[in-house]
């Protein structure tokens, strides 16, 4: 919708094919990041090295201020490291300009936010449709995929509802459908259960896990929610901007989910 | 059924904070109405002025070269002797024929009118007319003013009658005889009670030309009109004063005298070949003036006439001066309204960007480029601008219809006659199109900076915005 007249960039943002790929979805090498306040630099990441496999649900875990959201932002290509290399889906994203990064996010990355971040003037259907409009998916295909996505997150009956007419859990389901509907190779979620009660949080965790398994997508979540850690394939603890040795979490029984696309 | 189209998102965003949008819209609407009503009023004044001028002097005049600049006091030297041939050619010309409504001769002269035996006189600007043609010219009303055509006071078919401007009639103490309004009572009326005697030669000349200053059989007063002939000798004609009329401007009323063309020609040329100082052309539409002028110039060149073509704007410079005055006032008002609109829309859009910073971050994270964000906010500013100008246009039209049907009148500066107070918005599209484009452009310009700022917010900062 917003890109109607934009010219696509050369395929520098083209990701490597993920199915059956042996390459990691994300490779972080020697990444530093500091935030500047006036003349004061506050280091947030201090030389992080990390490799996240495709087809896995990974959790960046740590207390507030540990740097997990900053690392997630870097992986999501919405921020740039001060130093270090970052390869996402086979693409060295440090080489991309702002428009190329935008296109890369549009084509390969889905986001789920703590505050849902739905567009309040759009219905649930339209919110889920939006990424497909950006990607210029044809109307018939859009309709099919949006309905399937909403059906999959259990909100087919609420597709005409505006975000204000939905509960917190329902909003997060719409957000998850929005992230999955374009079939990205990488989905990032920042504290997706932080604003939900435990029951809704558990349901959202189960939904994300099921969808991740069904679509074999690399799913990276920043959270200190124990439920999420319990569902993760891999947990990466972060403390004071440094990554601690990863934990392999026990995987629970798979949650079935209908086909999305 | 559910799908978004490219207008849906900005439209819904515009309606998100309805109160704020409404306030901004009201600013635009009031601005648009003010521009259109004032512009329409200025148009009406200028159109009214043009109507008055064209009714009196036509659109174009053929004159001897330099008569306008040098010869207005010398009708003898700058007369058009073969004016009948010129008129015939103009009337028969295939290009001019469909454009021209009236072709009529005019002889302007300077003279003295008075009752020399009573000791009252004054200089006059005399106009030798064909009264019937003048009456047809006064029917010209291209802009459809709600006025009835006012016939010239000079009667048709009366070769000895003249008409005066009401100022001349007052000066010549003809208030009662001609029912002139606003005549002070108790002013000295004549020298007959003991003033200085009239020179013998002029008195004798006057008496030789006519039976004296006694009233005509119909009770109308008579006057002597004195002018210089071709050889420089004075010539006097005794004429019956049929009526006094107002020409709308006091300076003209104070010197105006209309007389039959033949009388004027006799006065100026005596027994010589009669001439005129102008051949007047009134067109059906002012829009044809350039075509008509070009054709006349071609005719002049082809026939070798020693003539030039002058339009009503050259002949009556106050017309363009008035237009320029209104244009400068309109420009000033546009500047004021434009400034208000600029800051109003800019303030609204800046607030919108601030309130929707997180949303900007969300859209950017989904892959919307900076350009897309800028276009979205620019589009919202344009939507507000379009809504405001369209609604403003609609309301301005209603206001104009109300004003035009209210029957208001007013007296313009330098005029002594009331004219209808109307608003002309639709004669040309310039006013509506110009004001809409101007305010739309201002709305777009007002949105540029907020839109640019929105596009430049780093994604992470936008997402963190509280």
UniProtKB/TrEMBL annotation, chain A:
Gene3D superfamilies: P-loop containing nucleotide triphosphate hydrolases. Keywords: ATP-binding, Cell membrane, Membrane, Nucleotide-binding, Transport. This is ABC transporter ATP-binding protein. It comes from the Bacteria. Pfam families: ABC_tran. SMART domains: AAA. The keyword Transmembrane does not apply. It comes from Chitiniphilus shinanonensis. Residues 1-23, 241-261 are annotated as: Disordered. GO terms for molecular function: ATP binding.
Automatic annotation (TrEMBL), chain B:
Belongs to the ABC-4 integral membrane protein family. LolC/E subfamily. The keyword Transmembrane helix applies. The chain crosses the membrane at residues 21-42, 324-346, 377-403, 431-452. Keywords: Cell membrane, Membrane, Transmembrane, Transmembrane helix. InterPro entries: ABC3_permease_C, Lipoprotein-release_system. Its main location: membrane. It is found in: Cell membrane. It comes from the Bacteria. This is Permease. The keyword Membrane applies. Residues 332-458 form the ABC3 transporter permease C-terminal domain. The lineage of its organism: Bacteria, Pseudomonadati, Pseudomonadota, Betaproteobacteria, Neisseriales. PANTHER family: LIPOPROTEIN-RELEASING SYSTEM TRANSMEMBRANE PROTEIN LOLE (PTHR30489). It comes from Chitiniphilus shinanonensis. It is a multi-pass membrane protein.
């Amino acid at each position: 919708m917003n890109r109607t007249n934009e010219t696509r960039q050369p395929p520098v943002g083209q990701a490597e094919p993920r199915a059956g790929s042996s390459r990691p979805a994300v490779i972080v090498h020697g990444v530093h990041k500091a935030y500047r306040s006036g003349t004061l630099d506050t280091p947030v990441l201090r030389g992080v090295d990390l490799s996240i496999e495709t087809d896995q649900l990974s959790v960046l875990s740590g207390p507030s201020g540990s740097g997990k959201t900053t690392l997630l932002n870097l992986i999501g290509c919405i921020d740039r490291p001060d130093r270090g290399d970052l390869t996402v889906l086979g693409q060295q994203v440090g080489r991309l300009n702002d428009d190329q990064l935008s296109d890369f996010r549009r084509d390969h990355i889905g986001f789920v936010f703590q505050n849902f971040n739905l567009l309040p003037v759009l219905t649930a259907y339209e919110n889920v449709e939006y990424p497909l409009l950006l990607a210029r998916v044809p109307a018939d295909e859009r309709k099919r995929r949006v309905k399937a996505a909403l059906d999959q997150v259990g909100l087919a009956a609420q597709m005409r509802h505006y975000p204000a007419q939905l509960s917190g859990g329902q909003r997060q389901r719409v957000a998850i459908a929005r992230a999955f509907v374009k079939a990205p190779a990488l989905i990032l979620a920042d504290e997706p259960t932080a604003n939900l009660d435990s029951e809704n949080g558990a349901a959202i965790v189960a939904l994300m896990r099921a969808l991740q398994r069904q679509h074999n997508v690399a799913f990276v979540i920043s959270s200190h929610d124990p439920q999420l850690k319990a569902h993760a394939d891999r947990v990466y603890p972060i403390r004071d901007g440094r990554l601690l040795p990863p934990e392999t979490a026990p995987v629970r029984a798979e949650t079935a989910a209908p086909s999305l696309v | 059924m559910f799908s978004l189209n490219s207008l849906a998102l900005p439209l819904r965003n515009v309606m998100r904070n309805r109160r704020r949008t409404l306030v901004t819209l009201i600013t635009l609407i009031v601005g648009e109405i003010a521009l259109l009503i004032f512009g329409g009023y200025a148009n009406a004044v200028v159109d009214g002025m043009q109507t008055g001028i064209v009714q009196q002097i036509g659109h174009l005049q053929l004159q001897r070269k330099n008569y306008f600049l040098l010869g207005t006091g010398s009708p003898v030297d700058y007369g058009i002797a073969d004016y009948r041939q010129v008129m015939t050619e103009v009337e028969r010309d295939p290009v001019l024929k469909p454009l021209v409504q009236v072709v009529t001769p005019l002889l302007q002269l300077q003279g003295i009118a008075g009752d020399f035996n009573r000791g009252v006189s004054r200089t006059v600007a005399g106009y030798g007319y064909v009264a019937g043609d003048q009456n047809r010219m006064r029917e010209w009303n291209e802009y459809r003013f709600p006025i009835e055509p006012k016939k010239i006071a000079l009667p048709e078919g009366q070769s000895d009658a003249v008409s005066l401007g009401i100022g001349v009639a007052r000066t010549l103490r003809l208030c009662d005889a001609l029912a002139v309004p606003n005549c002070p009572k108790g002013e000295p009326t004549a020298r007959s009670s003991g003033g200085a005697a009239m020179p013998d030669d002029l008195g004798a000349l006057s008496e030789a030309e006519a039976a004296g200053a006694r009233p005509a059989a119909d009770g109308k007063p008579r006057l002597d009109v004195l002018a210089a002939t071709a050889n420089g000798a004075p010539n006097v004609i005794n004429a019956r004063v049929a009526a006094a009329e107002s020409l709308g401007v006091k300076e003209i009323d104070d010197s105006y005298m209309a007389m039959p063309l033949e009388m004027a020609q006799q006065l100026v040329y005596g027994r010589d070949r009669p001439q005129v100082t102008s051949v007047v052309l009134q067109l059906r539409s002012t829009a044809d003036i350039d075509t008509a002028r070009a054709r006349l110039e071609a005719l002049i060149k082809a026939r070798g006439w020693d003539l030039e073509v002058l339009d009503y704007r050259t002949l009556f410079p106050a017309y363009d001066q008035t237009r320029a005055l209104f244009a400068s006032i309109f420009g000033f008002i546009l500047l004021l309204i434009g400034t208000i609109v600029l800051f109003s829309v800019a303030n609204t859009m800046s607030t919108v960007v601030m309130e929707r910073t997180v949303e900007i971050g969300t859209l950017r994270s989904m892959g919307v480029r900076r350009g897309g964000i800028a276009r979205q906010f620019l589009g919202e500013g344009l939507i507000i601008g379009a809504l405001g100008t369209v609604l403003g246009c609609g309301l301005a039209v209603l206001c104009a219809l109300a004003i035009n049907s209210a029957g208001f009148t007013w007296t313009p500066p330098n005029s002594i006659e009331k004219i209808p107070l109307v608003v002309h918005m639709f004669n040309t599209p310039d006013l509506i199109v110009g004001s809409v484009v101007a305010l739309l452009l201002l709305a777009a310009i007002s949105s540029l900076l907020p839109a640019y700022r929105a596009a430049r917010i780093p994604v992470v900062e936008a997402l963190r915005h509280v």
